[in-house]
From TrEMBL:
Chain's role: Has a role in nuclear-cytoplasmic transport of proteins and mRNAs.
GO cellular component: cytoplasm; nucleus
Domain NTF2: 25-140
Protein name: NTF2-related export protein
Keyword Disulfide bond attached: no
Organism this protein belongs to: Catenaria anguillulae PL171
Keywords, comma-separated and alphabetical: Cytoplasm, Nucleus, Protein transport, Transport
Signal peptide region: none
One GO BP annotation of this record: mRNA transport
Pfam families registered for this protein in UniProt: NTF2
Length: 141
């Protein structure tokens, strides 16, 4: 076995736990986020911090302004068609995860569902274990 192969094997072995943690974090976020968005929107605030940065179809928000925005949106029903997660290895935080979702959303004031794509960056506060949404970008497709 060459030195390069051994190094590659070590990188893969080191990355596997991070990938598994990212996948678990994504599964938890996708279930929790869209359930809260559709059934108990006020509880979404627990997933964000005041410093969270959000882009919603080109409109920029921070945590408090985004909360006001989503609380005033019509009732919704999301259907997630796909999601994916990757650890962000070049992050300053010990645990940062990028989560992408794709699906449809039907708002009560619209006749037909619309396709959307959303990317979340989850990270930790120093000394804390739980992840929060540090950044989110939502876009109609």
């Amino acid at each position: 076995m060459s030195a390069m192969s051994a190094t590659e094997d070590q990188r893969k072995a080191h990355a596997r736990p991070q990938i598994d943690r990212a996948a678990a974090a994504a599964a938890s976020l996708v279930t929790s986020y869209y359930q809260k968005m559709d059934t108990h929107r006020a509880s979404l605030k627990t997933l964000y911090k005041e410093s969270s940065a959000i882009s919603w179809n080109g409109h920029a928000f921070t945590g408090p302004a985004f909360r006001e925005f989503y609380l005033n949106m019509p009732a919704s029903e999301h259907r997630i068609e796909a999601s994916d997660a990757h650890p962000v290895l070049a992050s300053q935080s010990p645990e940062t995860v990028m989560v992408t979702t794709f699906g449809t959303v039907k708002f009560t004031n619209e006749r037909n569902p619309r396709k959307f794509h959303s990317t979340f960056f989850l990270t930790q506060e120093p000394g804390k274990s739980e992840l929060y949404i540090a950044s989110q970008c939502f876009r109609w497709v």
